[in-house]
Each structure stands twice: as C-alpha cells, then as structure tokens.
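Re: the request from the purification team.
They wanted to know what the chain is likely to look like in 3D before they choose a buffer screen. I agreed to run a prediction and write the result into the notebook, where they can find it.
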Amino acid sequence: MYMRMAIRECQNAAEEGEVPIGAMIVHPEKGIIGKSFNQVEMLQDATAHAEVLAITQACQATGNWRLEGCTLYVTKEPCPMCAGAIVFSRIAKVVWGVSDPARGGESVFHILNSPSLVHRVECIPGILEEECKEHLVGFFRGLRANRREIRDAED
C-alpha cells in the first residue's frame, strides 16, 4: 500500500518533468508523516530529492529530527546524499523498488549499514520493482526521444 503511494508521488514528479522518484515516510503510530517527489528542477536545488523533502516534512510533523521507528518507502534506491540523511535522521527501515547498482547509497557505498556511522538501517529492496523501473525507463526514453526530435529539427 505505501509503496503504491510512493509510486503515485513518482508519477507527480514525471508530470512536472522531474526524474520520477517518489517517497513516503510512515510513523508506526501516526501513519504517513511525510511524502514527496523529486523537485530538483522545479526548485533549482540539487538537494531537493524525494527522500530529503519527505524527511523534512516528517521532522516538521513530529517536531523532532529523530525519526526512530519510521519506515521510508521510495521508488528507487537512495543516492549517497539521501542515504546519509536517512542514517542521520535515524529512520529504522528503507523499502525501495529499483536498486541502483551504479550509484546506490547502499548497494555501492554501503552507507545505510556502515559500521563507521552511529545508526544502521534495515533495507528491503525490490518491492514493486518492475513497476518502479517502468516509470524510470519510460521517463528517460522520453527524454532521449525529445533530444532526437530537437536534433532532427536543427538539421
């Protein structure tokens, strides 16, 4: 259910021309306390990833920067920046759809479970993976097609 809600957020991102990644933070007692989608282009802010924006909302909703016991649902494995924010906000669990074997905060850099950091995060990858992947692949396919059309029009 929550991953499907994160997928709806990722669709909002795509509609805004953003990389389609959506995130949802769920508190064990309060329910949904943060949700967002990538807004890097919209806000012209390199840190406006879905996870970071959802963490900000969740901290405001709880009045606490510690999100202990919370679960983050996100359509793509968090990048290193987002993984760092997840660790430092003390989120207990991250559930994601598509892994990122090239730049993943956990699968490449092992940030979510680094013995050097003060907190470890339970990771559950591959939830609704194909559906999450379709959104990303479709978005980037559309970008490439648009670039070809522009190149062809310039010739």
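For the purification team: The beta strands are 22-27, 31-37, 71-76, 93-98, 122-124.
Please add any questions underneath this entry.
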